[in-house]
Amino acid sequence: MKATRLALFAALTSALLAGCASNVKLDDKPAPVENRSTGTTSSNTGANNAGTSQSQVASVDLTKNQQAPGASVVYFDYDSYVVKDEFRPTIEAQAKSLTANKAKKVTIEGHTDERGGREYNLALGQKRAEAVVKSLTLLGVTESQVEAVSFGKERPAVQGSDEAAWAKNRRAEFNAK
Amino acid sequence: MLNRRTFTAASAGLALASPALAQFRVEIAGVGATQVPIAVAKFRDEDKTTQALSAIIRADLERAGVFRGIDTNAAIDETAQPVMADWRARSADALVAGSVTRLADGRYDVRFKLWDIVKGQELGGQSNAVQPADLRLAAHRIADYVYEKLTGDKGVFSTRIAYVTRTGTRYALRVADADGEGGQVALNSPEPIISPAWSPNGQELAYVSFELQKAVVYVQDVASGKRRVIANFRGSNSAPAWAPDGQSLAVTLSRDGISQLYTMGRNGESPRRLTTSQSIDTEPVYTPDGRTIFFVSDRGGGPQVYRTPVSGGGVERVTFSGNYNISPALSPDGRYLAYISRQGNAFKLYLMDLGTPGATPIALTDTSDDESPSFAPNGRLIIYASRAQGRDVLMTTTLDGKIKAKLVSTAADVREPMWGPYGR
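YS: structure for the whole thing
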């Protein structure tokens, strides 16, 4: 247990030194434990050889993105409910898991970005969730295993009023019941 | 020309009464609005109560758009014989004066009189004994009396509004006076609440709550807090609208695969599908005669406002300009349609005169995030949600868009307003 924590710390430290602070992945292959002292020592020398600010702090927020992005989320274009081809593997993986276990049930939660009315967005999110359900049933999933619901614009995945935030909020999520 | 006034006197007085969560501030834009200059003298002994009655009355009248308050320090009450020439010299067309007296049983006797200065005559007055908690209501009722005597229209100052606040991850459905003050919580929830709708008798609120991790429609008795689920079908249940007789509601259900309109009894009994399309149909609202439902559908591509008879059948498109028109609200006489229209990247409150076929809809605001319009029961004001200074705020506007008031809260986002009916 202690070794795992040290490995995690080492991974974070090396990521920090590499300057990719905004893109820390906790599931990256952990760096060897003995690298920790090396990394710490080099950062204490005051040398700024990596081109990274010495005041930089990498922020890891475990309250967000608890689901690995891409694994169980389908993203949509603005005002659209078309499931794009790039999310076929996601849908197929979910369908496989559901057809293999008929007792398994999931809720497909549709969401929208913040633009426009709450009720229309609720209906748009519902349409997105229904589109995902349809894709699943075409792959053999029983209708009683899945329920499409919507949160409209009420539960954004990320805060913000730019296209980057909006794109992450126009989505359908799979949630085990 | 822009003329902004804020009622600091009112806010100072009211702050004592209740920790003001929010309060409307009046912004007057444009010229040409005919406004009756009115003086509301400080009520005798109002300082001995928790409410600044004269300031509440003045703010009410100014927000309505047809009055302009005149400052006065006159120490008079309803027993005075005002010298008309003096008040004419101060450019007042009307005068209100009154008093508050504490009664032995703890209630307050609130008295007032209204004078028409131009004609030099008394227009009437009243005396009402009220509980201390109803002093604000007493002030609003005086404003209603004055408004009706001087304009011939019924006032809406003693009506209530419902709205939703969000503070961090907490949501609350609140009921407040029409001026945004005296708010009380009807429902606290860790999950979103949207689309409150007053029953026609003002005793119940229908709304959508996500407390079960999906959209479910509830009806709650406002006075007792007792509530019931009226629509919790597979999928989403939303957009409740009361029929004018209060015996049934229209809702949006996705139980048959896509959001469609249904009607049901007031307890959710015998749901009946009203629309049959392959598109989104939502946001139903009844016409005052209860025979037609206006709603939003994207059957033509983007969302537009349509109407259909409640008995079912022919669907007719209502909005044509713009490619995104949502959230219809009808004036109590059925003549005007308020709705939200997307213009470029902005969402604006629009008004369409249904009584003049072919009339061009007009934009009522210069804001860009308007939502959820609702008419006051006298049809003279519209309340709607918007954004200002990075917060969700509520606004009221006159139908010509000239007089606006903003409900600002420093502590919460305020949204989803719905103006209640007469009576409480």
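YS: worth flagging: The radius of gyration of chain B is 22 Å.
IM: good catch. Also Chain B has four helices and 31 strands.
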